[in-house]
Amino acid sequence: MIEKSDITGVILAGGKSSRFGSNKALYSVQEKTMLQCAIELLQPFCCDVCISGNCDEYAQYRIRCLPDEITDIGPLGGIYTAFKQCSTPYMLFLTCDMPFLTSPLISQLLSVDSNTQIACWKEASGDLQLFPLLLSRSLLSVIEEKIAAKSYNIRSLLQVCRHQCLSIAIKDQTCFQNINRLKDIAV
Question: pTM higher than 0.90 for the full model?
Answer without folding.
Answer: yes
